[in-house]
Amino acid sequence: MHTVLFYRTAAGRPIIKEWLRAFDKPDRAVLGEDLKTLQLGFPMGLPLCRSLGSGLWEVRSSLAGNREARMIFFHDAKAKALVVVHGFIKKSQKTPKADLDLALRRMKEFSP
After folding, report:
1. Which residue from 26, 32, 88, 90 puts its CA 20 to 30 A from 57's CA?
2. Rounded to whole angstroms, how far apart are CA atoms 106 and 77?
3. N- to C-terminal Cα separation, the chain
4. How far apart are CA 67 and CA 64, in angstroms?
């Protein structure tokens, strides 16, 4: 089993947790269950999880209203942790480059 950690800004702001708290209760339940499944079974593949390259992975969650949420994370083998560095609602087929760049930057900044 892996620990799930959430990225915080340099000032300590838990922006990923804030993003998750913005969802209503049923959506939070879906996101939480998907993270729990990942935590217990990583590494795993589609339909829940897939590699984005460069050490990044995504958790794919289907929410009410035909919305698709994505949480981008990396695996810290040393800490045996999955570190969620970005989350967004997917609006296009391909993951936007800006979202990938942000996740990569946060992965490089991260220190548990």
Report:
1. 26
2. 17
3. 17
4. 6
